[in-house]
Structure formats: structure tokens, C-alpha cells
Amino acid sequence: MKRGKRYRELITKYKKDKEYEIEEALKLTKSLATAKFDETIELAMNMNLDPTKSEQKIRGTVSLPHGIGKKIRVIVFAKGEKEKEAKESGADYVGAEDLIEKIMKEGWTDFDVAIAPPDMMKEVGKLGKILGPRGLMPNPKTGTVTFEIKEAVKEFKAGKIEINVDKFSNIHLPIGKASFTEDKLQDNLITTLETVLRMKPATVKGAYIKSITLCSTMGPAVKIKVSELKKVA
Q: What pLDDT is recorded for position 3?
């Protein structure tokens, strides 16, 4: 891949093959975020998992102590009292058949999280081919299929995000913005790592997490020592 001049200059400022301790990696990643906008700091982990095995396809959520630094757009599929509850809790869009039809006809996916009570899932299931590939389909494992609409909306608005291993055995998610202090980024990172470690399937043999990297939206990757996991285990 051909890289721009700014990127090529950035990779001369550090040892890209070196593995750093958490504190040093965060400081370095922030310094490499030199774009003209507030870049997202992203965490990527390569896992010793086989996603083709159901017991190793881990999926869950983590509530970041300091959020991810952006407004999370939440929609709720609901009727009656649950519709009222969703609107009062601050959901960005609330509806039932009308919302389902908008997504089906227009392919509309201008939101980050979709929540639905269990009794709506028969109808919402029609959206599987549209929402599924985008990771937006409500799912009990991520707390997005629930009767506790108010709590779910507030949690996702506050910084609850999904952890999901992809078909290449990678986990990739945001942990904040470059404008965050190093302490806030570290809190979010440690909380995420702790959560992922707790999700380790019993069938995994050997190292669970093979590699850990951080990067900003437009910056190069910084490697973290896997041995640093001993600090958060």
C-alpha cells in the first residue's frame, strides 16, 4: 500500500517493530495522531481463536469508563410502553413497522446501535441481511435484545461498546480520542483488556491473545508487549 508523506514521516519517529509497555505505547500513539481532526484511538488484537467453532466465537460488550468520545446514535424498535420508555431514555430514533420499513426500503443504517425487546425480534429478524453484515443486528449476547430498554439506551450512550471476534480472529474497537488524557485512555484500555481476558473460552490452548496494537485513525500502528497482560489479569 502506497503511503502519504505525512505517514512516512510518522513511522520514522519510533521503532515500528518494537513492542512497548502500555504507558509508553499510549503516549506514542497520541503523539502520532497529527491529523487536523480529533482522531480515534483504536485497539486491535489478534486472537488464538477459531471463529468457525461456536464456542470460540466470543461476543460481548464492555462499558468504557470514559466513553469513546463521540455521540452514539441509538435506535430502538418498540411499541406501546416500551416505545415511550425508549423516547424518554434518549434514543435517537424509535419505531416499529415504520422503522423496519425505512431500513428495508432505503437501506438506512445511519446509527451505531440498534436495540429491541424480545417480542419485537420476529419483525426485526427481517432485517438480518441488512443489519447483520454491519454488526448492527440486535443480539442478546450484546445486551441489545432486552426488555430493560431504558438501561440499555443509557449504557450504550455512555460508552458501552461491542466486543466481537471477526473471521480472521481479530478484535478491533475504539478506546477513545486522541484528545483524551493518557490516564483516560489507559483506563479504557485496561477495562477492555480485562473484559476480553474474562471472555476466554475454556477450549483455548496456549496463548489467548497473540498480539496487541494501538493506532490513531490516520496514524501507524504501535505494538504493545503481550506480557503487559500480566498487569491486568
A: 74
